Amino acid sequence: MTFWRKLVNPIAVVLGLAVILLAAQPVWAKVVDRVVATVNGVIITLSTVQERAAILKQQMQASGNSLKIIKMRNRALRDQQRLAAMPMTFEAI
Questions:
Q1: What single string gives the DSSP state of each residue in 8-57?
Q2: pLDDT classification of 65: cutoffs 50, 70, 90
Q3: d(C-alpha 4, C-alpha 77), whole Å
Q4: Which element (helix H / strand E) includes 89?
Q5: 38 phi-psi bin (left φ>0, alpha ψ -120 to 50, beta other)
Q6: How confident is the model at residue 14 (pLDDT cuts 50, 70, 90)?
Q7: What are phi and psi of 87, to 5 degrees?
Q8: Which of 3, 6, 46, 51 fits 34 for a cystine, CB–CB 3.0-4.6 Å?
Q9: What is the pLDDT of residue 1?
């Protein structure tokens, strides 16, 4: 009987550890979006700013006003450089 007790306890420990290790899954973080600003409690994200900038660019190109497009592009590039320095928001997947 003591032989079986000595044999069963290590086997149970090894099996228990194997189950725990196999069941554990790694947790990875992924950048979802950047918070650019909050205005009156409303969060403005980088993707929202980029979407609106693309719409404005299309409107400006349609109007044929190239000087405004150049100024707008330069302003967008400056804003993009500022946004790149801002902290990121993470979400676990």
A1: HHHHHHHHHHHHHHHH-----EEEEE-EEEEETTEEEEHHHHHHHHHHHH
A2: low
A3: 73
A4: strand 89-92
A5: beta
A6: confident
A7: -65, 155
A8: 46
A9: 53
